[in-house]
């Protein structure tokens, strides 16, 4: 009986039963895909600073590797090293992929919610033309953001929107417009080839 009580207390700390089950299903389904290709809209909003920006992006994920294209930047990561090509500056910055809890990588955005957050089921709602589950996540450890809201397609167990609420009053939203699973991908997509970026300064920041 005691172990049962302990488990109940632990589950309360991690979140309510419904949100945990929904997140486990989402993570299981997402991680089962060999590759994921996403087209999304990124929105940054800060009413106090009168900021309302929106831009489209593309993301390709294979395991812990990804390639992200957004706002004139191309980010390539093989899981250990990341290369960021900045078009305007005509430079590539090389960084080590730090496995820090603070960093929000595309891989973390798509799964591993029950590891680092307390979850709360908010409501079932009709959004983006379908029935969706709305879940709020609170970081277990202190972060620069205080909440992440997930909107999940109820039928498909698939993300529709992720919004990060920053302590400075900004919100950062990723609205998924297109989601393709298990597309054929050339593994070379996740490694940097200097020949693809001629006349570019390479800055190693490791």
What does this molecule look like?
With 206 residues, the protein is α+β, with helices and mostly antiparallel strands. It is built from four helices and twelve strands, in the order ααββββββααββββββ. The protein has helices at 2-14, 17-32, 106-110, 113-116; strands at 36-46, 51-62, 65-70, 73-77, 81-86, 91-96, 117-127, 130-139, 145-153, 158-166, 171-181, 201-204. Strands 7-8-9-10-11-1-2-3-4-5-6-12 form a twelve-stranded mixed β-sheet. Strand 3 (65-70) and strand 4 form a beta hairpin. The longest helix is centred in the N-terminal third of the chain and has 16 residues, at 17-32.
| Biggest pleated sheet | 12 strands, mixed
Low-confidence stretches: 1-12
CA radius of gyration: 19 Å
Beta-strand percentage?
over 45%
Helix-strand topology string:
HHEEEEEEHHEEEEEE
Morphology: globular
Distance between the termini: 52 Å
Measured as a percent range, the helix fraction is 10-25%
Name the structural class.
alpha+beta
* Total DSSP E strands: 12
* Lateral arrangement of strands in the main beta sheet: 7-8-9-10-11-1-2-3-4-5-6-12
Overall average pLDDT = 85
Number of helices: 4
């Amino acid at each position: 009986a005691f172990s049962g009580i302990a488990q109940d207390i632990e589950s309360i700390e991690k979140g309510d039963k419904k949100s945990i089950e929904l997140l486990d299903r989402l993570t299981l389904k997402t991680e089962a895909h060999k590759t994921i290709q996403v087209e999304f809209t990124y929105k940054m909003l800060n009413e106090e600073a009168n900021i309302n920006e929106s831009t489209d992006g593309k993301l390709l994920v294979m395991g812990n590797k990804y390639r992200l294209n957004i706002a004139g930047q191309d980010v390539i990561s093989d899981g250990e090293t990341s290369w960021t090509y900045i078009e305007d500056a005509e430079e590539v910055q090389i960084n080590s992929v730090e496995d820090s809890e603070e960093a929000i990588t595309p891989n973390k955005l798509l799964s591993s919610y029950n590891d680092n957050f307390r979850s709360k089921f908010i409501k079932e709602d009709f959004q983006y033309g379908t029935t969706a589950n709305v879940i709020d996540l609170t970081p277990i450890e202190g972060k620069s953001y205080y909440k992440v809201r997930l909107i999940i397609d109820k039928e498909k167990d698939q993300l529709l929107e992720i919004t990060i609420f920053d302590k400075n009053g900004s919100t950062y939203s990723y609205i998924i417009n297109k989601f393709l699973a298990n597309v054929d991908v050339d593994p070379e997509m996740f490694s940097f080839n200097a020949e693809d970026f001629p006349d570019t300064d390479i800055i190693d920041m490791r």
